[in-house]
Amino acid sequence: MLKRTLIRALKYFGYEIQRRPKSQNAPKEVIPAFEQIQYGCGRNYLTGWLNTDIISTGPENYMYVDLTNRHPFPDNFFRFAFSEDFIEHIDQASSLLFLEEAHRTLRKGGVLRLTFPVLDVVLTKHFSSIDFKSFLRGKEEAFDSFGHIHFYSQDSLALVANHIGFDMKIVECGKSEYSKLEGINTRTDGVNLHVELTKR
After folding, report:
1. pLDDT tens, residue by residue, 79-98
2. By residue range, what is the domain housing residue 111?
3. Does 13 have pLDDT greater than 60?
4. Is 74 helix (H, G, I), strand (E, B) or coil?
5. Is residue 15 part of a domain?
6. Low-confidence winner among 27-31, 161-165, 190-194 (lowest mean pLDDT)
7. Are 148 and 141 in contact (CB under 8 A)?
8. Is residue 68 part of a domain?
9. How many domains, in total, are found in the chain?
10. Spatial distance between the Cα atoms of 187 and 146, rounded to a whole number of angstroms
11. Is residue 12 part of a domain?
12. CB neighbours of residue 196 within 10 Å
């Protein structure tokens, strides 16, 4: 009775009581069958890896995961992680969440290999002429045509990685001291930066 009276009184003053929806920040935890995960795989499914993206369906080793939200995986689980041409498709705030979750779900000493178009090369390639018309064309070429939202530079990624708890190492395309991470890149056009982030 008191609860109903309180709700009526609040409505009278323009307030409305609503039930809080179940939190979407804590999805049901999944224990993967693989110790290596690929983030934002598109249609490039790696054998022996858990492949994740926001495509509705895929092969047996594929899982739909919103990588900008909490990942449904346990702490300190994966040995290796890989992401190619994904991080530039999300805004900076979302990329911080993604990198934090990748860090949380990697075991100590686990390695995340990232490859993405680096800001320095994007500026040189698409924004070399300093005038509005050229910059408008650069915006179309570098951002709009591919759904790119944000580009890290080597320094800005190093700053973020260190803050989260990664050590960052620049690596060559297709090369790694880890056999699981060697030769898995598909982009070889010189636009991408290739790094390996090791969880401290």
Report:
1. 999 999 999 999 999 999 99
2. 36-41+48-199
3. no
4. coil
5. no
6. 27-31
7. no
8. yes
9. 1
10. 15
11. no
12. 22
CB atoms inside a 10 Å sphere around CB 198: 16
Partnered with residue 197 across adjacent β-strands are: 112, 168
CB 150 within 8 A of CB 89: no
Q: List, in sequence order, every residue forming a beta bridge with 170; answer none if it has no partner.
A: 195
Residue 4 has pLDDT above 90, yes or no: no
Is the pTM here over 0.70, yes or no? yes
> Residue 151: which CATH number?
3.40.50.150
| DSSP, res 149 | -
Q: Which two tokens stand for residue 152?
A: 């890290």
The packing angle between helices 119-126 and 132-142, to 10°, is: 130
As given in the structure block, the two tokens for residue 20 are 């809080």
Crossing angle of helices 92-105 and 154-164, in 10° steps, is: 50
Compute the distance between CA of residue 27 and CA of residue 9 in angstroms, rounded to an integer. Answer: 36
pLDDT for 173 beyond 70: yes
Cα gap 52→71, rounded to integer Å: 10
Residue 91 identity: D
* Residue 18, domain member (yes or no): no
DSSP string, 79-147: EEEEEES-GGGS-HHHHHHHHHHHHHHEEEEEEEEEEEE-HHHHHHHHS-S-SHHHHHHHHHHHTGGGT
* Token duo for residue 159: 């700053």
Both structure tokens of 175: 């090369």
Tell me how far apart the alpha carbons of residues 69 and 73 are, in angstroms, rounded to a whole number: 12
| Token reading at 149 | 């939202």
